[in-house]
């Protein structure tokens, strides 16, 4: 850990933050300098996002102090931090979808004439800023809603640039970008560096650290583990610092056996323009992972199987019978038997103000009813059984589900779907934002479900988890499955190489260089 | 890549639809009307549409910020009742006194003549604007959902209106009524400008109804600058994505209060005109409710999304015009008054359905619920 020096532009000392019972940051000391790209790495839930939210004035720390440009500061809202020159590009987009690109880019301080917004000057400004990030092709008149995700992210960067940042924070800013755009962002960051801007770069991609950062800090479990200069640590050492424990121990053992017959068979599935030619088999009692960079079509694939998407082509069979659910309501029926644990448990997984019991029973009401009425006794018994099975720690069944911790909320979502007795279980990043203990319980549960005959398709952004849990992993890139890994092939090097769609065997470092060279 | 014009047309599709629809049915109405395209018919149309157009504009601003203002009709009625006291134009002036629970409050005397009338109008508009401000403050600092907050304040405003005018009555200066509710020529001759309206250059404009001119002036001088202010932009941003607006460091509270306050001002303009037009004040409870509900319909027909973020007050003016022209047809086709709500409902449903067509194009059904 480096001691604060005169060169430090931003200095955090003793910062702690808890959310309910979950410790997000614990006594963190951290600093960064001007004219430096400073990478912050760590697993999901390591505290990176909380760190930048505190710096950007979104949340207030429970303890500790923040010094910026030599002065002690308390930012109570994002506007105050922005006024001081701290500009943040958040992972969740901060654009207004119904406003035009030009409106969005200049939203914080639009050019004015006679007190009114000067739309012409604003348009010229947007054009200039878009050109700076290499997006001349975006018409500033377009609404952000009508842009593809990758363009939106570039607009977001242009917006941040327009605020003349002195400290620029990027939170996974390249996750939604095409490779060409990533190069543009790298070039832009290099230029800002020469203009003496301090840059904090949050990422979970090792090759970005290698390619971009002058310094790097590792966070784990809400603590700042170490900060070091470029080249002081190898990729392997950084990964070890991030994980900080023995990888193999926490996952249940995988059975060794011949590959089981497919329960779910996907043939040549497509959905314009996001998915193309996807063929995949998931056997009964098998856990198959979906990997790759974020946003390569994994979520769309799960949604297409669950009947959410319209216009899906190709053929899906469950236990040899062709199925084509047109809605989640059809997908969950006994005849098809698919369950999906969705991406966002707060909006898609749970009815937050409703009780734990109501949430658990909501997906299986048809089987818990006699005639039009819910059979209360049956419902109670089923709910009790589900609670016992997943060992969900609750006060009373009648409490609102919003009172539970994140990990227990996720367990309720999973239990709710298990109550429908699905044959096929689709999991969309189910361990995101939950604590390590609950994660391990979920890993055990997944294996147990598989052992009882369920076919599990498991999307995760955490490579480690894919390696530890899955019998096989299919890596997606740009809406296609580029590779299937199993057995000894299933390791981090291969996953990263396939995720970047480069030659297997090249290590992560070489991969990043190859990416750079392609656009040099 | 599509041109700027194509992009603008596509983005304003609901507004353009409303505009085209209005032009079509208004032209049809004038053709069918025995005295169509005459100044007299236009004057009558303008007077009948003005109050609803103002209330629709009033509704638009909170709706853009993803709120709903159920008090606009009541606020309009309250201001109308105030006007029936303040705009009598009595030469000796109007004493301002209130009897409340045995207390006699004497607030002085409003001067007579033209000064008194101008002052009275300013007071009326100020009362409405303050009521709008009150709505905004309750929504923002009371942290109460707009729909329930304005349901309550609307009841308060109707209560005040009933207190002021338990029975319909009062008086409005005759010249004021004549000047504002007829053609521009009548306005000019009443206030003695442009050689009493006989100036040769004025002749091409003399037939235009004063109410239309007032409507256009309020839209251009109040709404357009607001839309192009930072506060106005913030109102749109809140309706589009309140979280993103906050994260962009915008002043959310100020914009919400401003939205309700501006709504109060617009509704006050409507109430003032309604009182001048009818030459009286009337605390008409059903009428207030009808105006509120029609304002929501006009907003939607005019192309503003009830979810906020897209649309504008100009569209709502055309929404109000469409609603009114539909009822004009009932008169020329002699449809029984009892059947009118039925037809109005069917037409409203048809008009609003145009906006729902996009649902057919959505490929990810999850997006329908976002």
Structure, explained:
- Chain A has 520 residues and is of the alpha/beta class.
- Chain A has 2 domains: 8-247, P-loop containing nucleotide triphosphate hydrolases (Rossmann fold, 3-Layer(aba) Sandwich); 249-519, P-loop containing nucleotide triphosphate hydrolases (Rossmann fold).
- Chain A has 18 helices and 24 strands.
- In chain A, the strands form 6 sheets. Chain A has a 6-stranded mixed β-sheet, with helices on both faces.
- In chain A, helix 4 packs across helix 5.
- The longest helix of chain A is centred in the middle third of the chain and has 16 residues, at 179-194.
- Chain A is globular and about 70 Å long.
- Chain A starts with 7 loop residues before the first strand and ends with a helix.
- Chain B has one domain (4-369).
- Helix content of chain B is 67%, strand content 4%.
- Chain B contains 16 helices and 2 strands.
- The radius of gyration of chain B is 21 Å and the shape is globular.
- The chains are: A alpha/beta (520), B mainly alpha (370).
- At the A-B interface, helix 2 and strand 8 of A face helix 1, helix 11 and helix 12 of B.
């Amino acid at each position: 850990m480096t001691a604060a020096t005169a060169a430090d532009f931003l200095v955090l000392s003793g910062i702690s933050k808890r959310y309910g019972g979950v410790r997000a940051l614990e006594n963190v000391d951290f600093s960064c300098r001007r004219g430096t790209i400073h990478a912050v790495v760590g697993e999901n839930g390591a505290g990176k996002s909380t760190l930048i939210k505190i710096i950007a004035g979104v949340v207030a720390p429970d303890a500790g102090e923040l010094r910026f440009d030599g002065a002690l500061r308390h930012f109570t809202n994002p506007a105050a931090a922005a006024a001081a020159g701290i500009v943040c590009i958040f992972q969740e987009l901060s654009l207004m979808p119904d406003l035009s690109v030009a409106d969005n880019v200049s939203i914080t301080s639009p050019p004015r004439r006679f007190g009114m917004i000067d739309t012409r000057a604003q348009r010229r400004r947007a054009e200039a800023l878009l050109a700076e990030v290499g997006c001349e092709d975006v018409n500033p008149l377009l609404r952000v809603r009508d842009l593809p995700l990758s363009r939106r992210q570039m607009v977001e960067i242009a917006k941040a640039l327009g605020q003349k940042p002195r400290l620029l924070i990027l939170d996974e800013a390249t996750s939604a970008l095409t490779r060409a755009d990533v190069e543009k962002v790298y070039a832009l960051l290099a230029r800002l560096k020469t203009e003496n801007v301090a840059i904090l770069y949050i990422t979970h991609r090792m090759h970005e650290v290698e390619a971009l950062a002058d310094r790097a800090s590792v966070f784990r479990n809400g603590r700042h583990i170490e900060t070091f200069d470029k080249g002081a640590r190898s990729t392997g050492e950084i990964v070890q610092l991030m994980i900080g424990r023995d990888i193999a121990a926490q996952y249940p053992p995988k059975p060794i056996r011949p590959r089981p017959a497919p329960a779910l068979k996907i043939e040549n599935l497509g959905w314009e323009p996001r998915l193309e030619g996807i063929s995949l088999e998931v056997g009964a009692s098998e856990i198959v992972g979906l990997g790759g960079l974020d946003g390569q079509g994994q979520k769309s694939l799960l949604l297409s199987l669950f009947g959410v998407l319209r216009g899906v082509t190709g053929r899906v069979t469950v236990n040899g019978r062709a199925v084509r659910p047109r809605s989640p309501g059809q997908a969950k029926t006994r005849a098809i038997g698919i369950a999906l644990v969705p991406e966002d448990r707060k909006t898609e997984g749970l009815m937050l103000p409703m009780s734990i019991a109501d949430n658990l029973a909501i997906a299986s009401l048809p089987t818990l009813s006699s005639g039009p009425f819910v059979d209360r006794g049956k419902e109670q018994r089923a709910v009790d059984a589900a609670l016992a099975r997943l060992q969900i720690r609750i006060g009373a069944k009648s409490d609102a589900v919003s009172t539970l911790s994140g990990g227990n909320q996720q367990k309720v979502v999973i239990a709710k779907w298990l109550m429908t007795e699905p044959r096929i279980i689709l999991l969309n990043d189910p361990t995101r934002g939950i604590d390590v203990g609950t994660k391990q319980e979920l890993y055990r549960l997944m294996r147990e479900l598989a052992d009882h005959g369920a076919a599990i398709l498991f999307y995760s952004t955490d490579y480690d988890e894919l390696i530890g849990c899955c019998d096989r992993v299919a890596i997606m890139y740009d809406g296609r499955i580029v590779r299937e890994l199993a057995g000894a092939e299933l390791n981090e090097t291969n996953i990263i190489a396939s995720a970047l769609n480069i030659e297997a065997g090249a290590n992560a470092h070489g991969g990043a260089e190859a990416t750079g060279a392609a656009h040099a | 890549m599509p041109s700027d014009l194509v992009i603008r047309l596509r983005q304003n599709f609901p507004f353009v639809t409303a505009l085209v629809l209005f032009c079509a049915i208004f032209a049809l109405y004038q053709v069918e009307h025995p005295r169509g395209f005459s100044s007299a018919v236009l004057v009558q149309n303008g007077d009948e549409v003005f109050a609803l157009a103002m209330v629709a504009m009033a509704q638009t601003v909170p709706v853009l910020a993803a709120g709903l203002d159920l008090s606009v009709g009541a606020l309009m009625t309250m201001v109308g009742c105030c006007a029936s006291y303040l705009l009598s134009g009595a030469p000796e002036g109007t004493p301002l006194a209130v009897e409340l629970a045995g207390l006699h409050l004497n607030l002085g005397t409003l001067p007579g003549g033209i000064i008194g009338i101008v002052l009275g109008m300013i007071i009326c508009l100020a009362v409405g604007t303050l009521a709008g401000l009150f709505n905004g403050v309750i929504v923002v600092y009371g942290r109460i959902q707009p729909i329930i907050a304005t349901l309550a304040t609307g009841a308060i405003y109707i209560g005040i209106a009933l207190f002021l005018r338990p029975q319909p009555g009062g008086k409005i200066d005759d010249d004021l009524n004549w000047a504002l509710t007829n053609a521009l020529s009548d306005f000019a001759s009443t206030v003695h400008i442009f050689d009493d309206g006989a100036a040769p250059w004025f002749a091409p404009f003399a037939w235009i109804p004063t109410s239309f001119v007032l409507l256009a002036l309020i839209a251009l001088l109040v709404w357009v600058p607001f839309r192009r202010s930072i506060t106005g932009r913030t109102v749109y941003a809140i309706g589009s994505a309140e979280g993103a607006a906050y994260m962009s460091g915008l002043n959310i509270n100020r914009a919400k209060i401003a939205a309700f306050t501006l709504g109060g001002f617009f509704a006050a303009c409507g109430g003032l005109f309604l009182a001048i037009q009818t030459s009286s004040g009337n605390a008409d409870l059903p009428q207030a409710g009808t105006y509120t509900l029609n304002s929501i319909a006009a907003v939607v027909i005019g192309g503003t999304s009830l979810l906020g973020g897209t649309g504008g007050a100009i569209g709502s003016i055309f929404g109000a015009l469409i609603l009114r022209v539909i009822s004009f047809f009932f008169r020329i086709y002699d449809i029984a008054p009892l059947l009118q709500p039925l037809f109005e409902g069917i037409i409203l449903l048809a008009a609003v359905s145009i906006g729902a067509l996009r649902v057919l194009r959505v490929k990810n059904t999850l997006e329908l619920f976002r």
